[in-house]
Amino acid sequence: MSTSLDEYDYVVVGAGPAGCLLANRLSANPQHRVLLLEAGGRDNYAWIHIPVGYLFCIGNPRTDWCFKTEAQAGLQGRALSYPRGKVLGGCSSINGMIYMRGQAGDYDSWAADGNPGWGWDQVLPLFRKSEDHFAGDSQFHGAAGEWRIERQRLSWPILDAFRSAAEQSGIASVDDFNKGDNEGCGYFQVNQKAGVRWNAAKAFLKPVRHRPNLTVLTDVEVDRVQLDNGRASAVISRCQGQPRTFRARQEIILCAGAVGSPSILQRSGIGPRPLLQSLGIGVAHELPGVGGNLQDHLQLRLIYKLENARTLNQIAGSVWGKMGMGLRYLYNRSGPLSMAPSQLGAFARSGPEQTSANLEYHVQPLSLERFGEPLHAFPAFTASVCDLRPQSRGRVEIRSAIAQDAPLIQPNYLSHPQDLRVAADAIRLTRRIVSAPALARFNPVEYLPGDSLQSEEELHEAAARIGTTIFHPVGTCRMGNDRDAVVDAQLKVHGIPGLRIADASIMPRITSGNTCSPTLMIAEKAAELILNPTLRSTTTPKERVTTT
After folding, report:
1. 276 lies in the same domain as 172
2. What is the domain-level CATH number for residue 463?
3. Number of folded domains in the chain?
4. Phi-psi category of 220—alpha, beta or left, where left has phi over 0 and alpha has psi -120 to 50?
């Protein structure tokens, strides 16, 4: 039987973290012919690899889709930039490089909702499998994998002082956030190797590009999935501007992310009937939940002016300082150019009613009015704090059947009253930490939002004014068994044989931390399910509810 050059066993859509890992795992069997499609280009842009280069990658159409949200009522009508990686490695090529899993309870709650095999005890081995951890193999970490994790290569006195202040405020110092309970304060571990960004393309694609059964194509934008007799059989795309169809003998796996995957489904006629009909798209298979359940971490950036402190504001504010930064990086890959965007982290509870840490801090020895603008001329640090378990829910919807038209992104930030309460409590907690004795010698003064704002209503207004995304969208193709679920616990799209989704869009609820490495875990799980089709949990999933 002859095989078309455009026919493969597995077609993986999207070469972000999940797609890179899946392409690696599926092509390990030489009998599997695997195709990986990426809408962006190669990761050969120098600023991808220099850690501080995220400043030149986010908002750059060479590496970023440059999406925008709808105007947010909860943010005083502001529309936010919504970066998503458009390059090999996806968001791992432009993100903050923080290695974070979340909390054991995140995954146990997924399993408790009828998704067997997704509890902490089941996913921990999947995290460990892909890890190349600086501390070596242990109960909680692996060292034989591809995903390099290292300590950061610098520290700052002001950050050390914040850590001490957090401890004085009841937030213990910890060395590792990734053992299932991340409560505490410490320096983030990062996905770097010797001071250079370690993205998913380097980790999972570069070592296996020699495999003759693996094809990686860039500049290929997928329009839709083609169904034959109800089964996913091919993807319709444009390859360097020309129409092209790629057929899949076994499966198509969408790894296009929380914005891309629901958009592809909707253009394929898979999604909410009212939306599809309003756009003149035939309803191939009604799945009301496609594009819904959007969740994201909204950060509040509190800025404090300082005395008796040297921060990046002064260092980067002079020609000599910039030259010194460059020379230090060239010499030994250290100094500010090796910095992740956030160096110090803290996980805390916004109030005594919380059973685990529900806030995450990203603390930085710098400040600026907004992303993309120059650093302030005065010494300062930023304590960004986000609600790890927001109750607000949004949606992603295509605006037309044309793939090149940017989708509607409606996060609905701060639309739930509980999120407003947590935001106010987060500002109060930050102020308590900053007023602790360990920071007194720096005489911190609140520059943003301003300490004159004290009442509950004033703090709600402050959150609406300074809140901005921390770029963790998830949940838009939710895993589950109810009517609004999109995939089952095997990551198979309900009612569509031959089609799976393996990316952050399948998360029922957002993880309690940064989302890149949990996305890799999801892909590792998908590979396990695909390559071992008889693998099942001993737990019986809840029956899917399909009635209206």
Report:
1. no
2. 3.30.410.40
3. 2
4. beta
HSE-CB for 50 with a 13 A CA cutoff:
19
In this model, does residue 533 exceed pLDDT 50? yes
Residue numbers of the domain that contains 82: 1-104+194-296+395-405+473-548
Each as own residue / partner, the long-range contacts of residues 420-423 (CB below 8 Å, 24 or more positions apart, any chain) are 420/460, 420/463, 422/350, 422/358, 422/359, 422/387, 423/298, 423/300, 423/387, 423/459, 423/460, 423/463, 423/467
CB–CB of 58/371 below 8 Å? yes
pLDDT band at 4, cuts 50/70/90?
Answer: low
User: Are 200 and 292 contained in the same domain?
Assistant: yes
> For the chain, what percent of residues have pLDDT higher than 90?
88
Number of other residues whose CB lies within 10 A of the CB of residue 212: 8
Amino acid symbol at 252: I
Residue finishing a domain among 471, 490, 506: 471
Residues belonging to the active site: 472
Structure tokens that stand for 401 in this block: 């059947």
User: Whole-prediction pTM value?
Assistant: 0.96
Residue 221 and residue 340 in one domain: no
Alpha carbon 343 to its chain centroid, in Å, reads: 17
ω into 207 cis (within 30 of 0): no
pLDDT in tens, 88-125: 999 999 999 999 999 999 999 999 999 999 999 999 99
- The pLDDT-based confidence of 3 (bands split at 50, 70, 90) is low
Q: Which pLDDT value is given to residue 200?
A: 98
- CATH number of the domain that residue 10 is part of: 3.50.50.60
Geometric angle at alpha carbon 186, from 183 and 191, rounded to 5°: 105
pLDDT in tens, 129-177: 999 999 999 999 999 999 999 999 888 999 999 999 999 999 999 999 9
Do 467 and 481 lie in a common domain? no
